[in-house]
Amino acid sequence: MRLLFNRGLLKGAPLSLRILFFNILVCAIGSALALTYWQGRSTGFAAGFAIGLANVFWLLRIARKGVACEPGRAGRMVARSYYLRFAATAALLAFLISRGLVGPIPLVIGLSASIFTTLGVLISFAFEEEKTRCTE
Question: Whole domain around residue 34: which residue ranges?
Fold first, then answer.
């Protein structure tokens, strides 16, 4: 991972591109493992991962819009967007589970894997930024 960040493919890449790259990588690996060892459940894992990744990017978009807004409007806009995102995600999860398209456990595992992958990228990015700041 350090090779990709510091010397390789993702050196100087924006944070959102790093998040996307590593989430796609982990999703592909996780789906392949689920397909191999947990047959019939890889669709649920991939769906959960995709929903989790969409949530991360939706949250990034909300944060960018909130920072760009004037202070009086920012709070209302962020709160409204947050609840809209939460309701849309809950409705999508309920639809997928109630129709029997995916099982709840692989879906939750995929959601969790996406969140943990994103947190790992963010922590790694923060350490990289700290090193850059300390050497200047």
Answer: 14-125
